[in-house]
Amino acid sequence: MNYKEIQAIIKNFEKSNMTKLELTTDEFSIKLSKLNEVTTNIVSTNKVDENLKANGDSKIENNHFELKSPLVGTFYASNSPNGKPFVQVGDIVKEKQPLCIIEAMKIMNEITSPINGTIKEIKVKDGDAVGFDEVLMVIE
Hints:
Blueprint: H1 3-15, E1 20-24, E2 28-33, E3 41-44, H2 46-54, E4 60-61, E5 64-68, E6 73-76, E7 92-93, E8 98-104, E9 107-112, E10 117-122, E11 129-130, E12 135-139
Antiparallel strand pairs: 1-2, 2-3, 4-5, 5-12, 6-8, 6-11, 7-10, 8-9, 10-12
């Protein structure tokens, strides 16, 4: 399943009368909730992350991995307005570690690191609007 299909699921959920949705396959798990503005998490397995790298949605050049936005929305560096950023330039990150949040249609989507590495550059600022496939960070 690609990100456009996931976005369609999220949009349809937002328009529906459902208050909670959990969908699990061999490749991914999505948990959505409208109750008390609960944060939505999209968790992918290594298989999906490997597919992203192989399909060119993000690219590795000269040991630099470009983490791209999987959807259109608002970039948040932390999980609360006055909170500490998930990561800063120079931080060492582990695979599946939270890096940022992209808010789309009032749903918070946690973006995790697909690789182990060091944050070399953060290309967007907290609160910036981001587009699909826009480079968010560079990981070495």
